[in-house]
């Protein structure tokens, strides 16, 4: 039984706690508290920890201390900020709904849902219960199912989520920051297309029909991301001035630049709409509104694979134990995003500076912000006008 005392010999303003450990030894220690109610809570915490003896594990000790601190704060009329892992993830996602673009928020939501499912019942425990080993095991769990790039993205989302919790004083340390990202080993890195490969892509687009040729030409001559290309509307296209404009979904940047002749010629031959807000590629826009990954997958399966530029992905089959599309995916070196790499390479080959190339494709850059904020479409005409025409026979 723990008890509180004053020590008249030391003339100390603090209350002292007398308690006994499991080995029978008696202890007399200052609580460093002048308030009796706070001193009582500190003394009781010590007594609870001592009573556990050999059963006092690190996790149990943290629970005792956390409860003790909460009781001490309550005794002084304060509360200890706290949240369960699941509740904090939900709260963080709500803030990101206002701060991030819809597709980015969707990616955050997918990552955290997977993480909470992995934790199981532990997701209902306090954030302080989350350990470095939990995140490490989760990283390795995801790495067995997704590519290195996707695994590292999941880890970065967790880091951001827990960093916000740290700023709110809900945790002392960001345990995800102590887990290293994975190095790219044995996986293909993204690259641009060669001129010959672009020719094979366009040939396959013509065979497949539909909107593929237009999507490829737009991606190739604007360097914009798949979602922005699919969502292009007629009000963003000025055929008279040969100018195209974008507000990028990922960064919110406003871009306006000159259209290369092959793209302008293609768009001029498309049936336009009386509605300025109508999409240039309505089928792709409808798919992108649900999930951009659907178009990306179709581009791989319907264009790149038949063109012989990538390996065809096997479909899930009961005979193979459900492997195929459900198995871990390897990152392909070619994808629709490779058109963006190609465009950037062509710009630099045409003499565009790094900063100008970054401005046109919408990359964040201090140099761009400082020197190219006020560039107009005319400023990009020279570089874009020098790009190769892939629609002409070789």
Keywords:
three-stranded antiparallel sheet, mainly alpha, 3 domains, 6 strands, hpI Integrase, Chain A, 394 residues
Describe this structure in words.
A hairpin with a 6-residue loop joins strand 5 and strand 6. Helix 1 packs antiparallel against helix 2 and helix 8 runs antiparallel to helix 10 (261-268). It contains 16 helices and six strands. The longest helix is centred in the middle third of the chain and has 20 residues, at 148-167. The chain has a three-stranded antiparallel sheet, with helices on one face. Strands 4-5-6 form a three-stranded antiparallel sheet. It is mainly α and 394 residues long.
In short:
With 394 residues, the chain is mainly α. It is 49% helix and 6% strand. Strand 2 (16-20) and strand 3 (26-30) form a beta hairpin.
Helix content: 40-55%
Identify the strand order in the major beta sheet.
1-2-3
Beta-strand percentage range: 5-15%
- Unreliable sequence segments: 317-327, 365-375
The CATH H-level homologous superfamily of the largest domain = Intergrase catalytic core
Number of helices: 16
**How many β strands by DSSP?**
6
Structural domain tally: 3
| N- and C-termini, Cα separation | 92 Å
Kindly provide the name of the CATH class of the largest domain. Answer: Mainly Alpha
Rounded to an integer, what's the Rg over CA atoms?
30 Å
- Class of secondary structure makeup: mainly alpha
Q: Write the CATH fold name of the largest domain.
A: hpI Integrase, Chain A
Major beta sheet, specifics?
A: 3 strands, antiparallel
SSE order: EEEHHHHHHHHHEEEHHHHHHH
What would you call the shape?
elongated
Mean pLDDT: 81
- Named at the architecture level, the CATH assignment of the largest domain is Orthogonal Bundle
């Amino acid at each position: 039984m723990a008890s509180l005392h004053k020590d008249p010999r030391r003339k100390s303003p603090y209350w002292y706690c007398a308690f006994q450990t499991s080995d029978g030894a008696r202890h007399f220690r200052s609580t460093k508290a002048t308030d009796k109610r706070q001193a009582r809570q500190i003394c009781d915490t010590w007594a609870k920890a001592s009573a556990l003896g050999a059963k006092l594990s690190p996790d149990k000790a943290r629970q005792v201390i956390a409860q003790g601190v909460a009781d001490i704060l309550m005794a002084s009329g304060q509360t200890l900020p706290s949240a369960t892992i699941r509740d904090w993830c939900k709260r963080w996602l709500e803030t990101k709904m206002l701060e991030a673009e819809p597709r980015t928020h969707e990616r955050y939501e997918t990552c955290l849902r997977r993480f909470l499912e992995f934790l199981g019942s532990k997701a209902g425990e306090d954030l302080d219960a989350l350990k470095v080993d939990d995140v490490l095991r989760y990283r390795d769990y995801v790495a067995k199912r997704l590519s290195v790039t996707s695994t590292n993205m999941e880890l970065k989302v967790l880091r951001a989520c827990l960093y916000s919790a740290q700023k709110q004083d809900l945790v002392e340390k960001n345990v995800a920051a102590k887990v290293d990202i994975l190095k790219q080993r044995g996986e293909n890195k993204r690259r641009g297309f060669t001129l010959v490969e672009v020719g094979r892509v366009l040939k396959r687009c013509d065979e497949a029909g539909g909107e593929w040729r237009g999507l490829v030409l737009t991606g190739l001559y604007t360097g914009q991301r798949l979602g922005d290309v699919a969502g292009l509307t007629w009000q963003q296209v000025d055929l008279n001035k040969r100018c195209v404009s974008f507000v990028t979904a990922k960064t919110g940047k406003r871009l306006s630049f000159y259209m290369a002749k092959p793209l302008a010629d293609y768009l001029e031959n498309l049936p336009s709409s009386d509605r300025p807000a109508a999409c240039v590629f309505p089928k792709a826009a409808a798919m992108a509104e649900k999930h951009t990954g659907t178009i990306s997958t179709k581009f791989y399966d319907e264009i790149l694979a038949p063109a012989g530029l990538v390996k065809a992905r096997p479909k899930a089959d009961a005979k193979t134990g459900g492997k195929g599309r459900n198995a871990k995916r390897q990152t392909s070196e070619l994808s629709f995003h490779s058109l963006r790499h190609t465009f950037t390479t062509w710009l630099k080959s045409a003499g565009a500076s790094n900063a100008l190339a970054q401005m046109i494709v919408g990359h964040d850059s201090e140099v761009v912000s400082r020197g190219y904020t006020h560039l107009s479409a005319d400023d990009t005409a020279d570089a874009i006008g020098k790009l190769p025409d892939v629609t002409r026979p070789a």
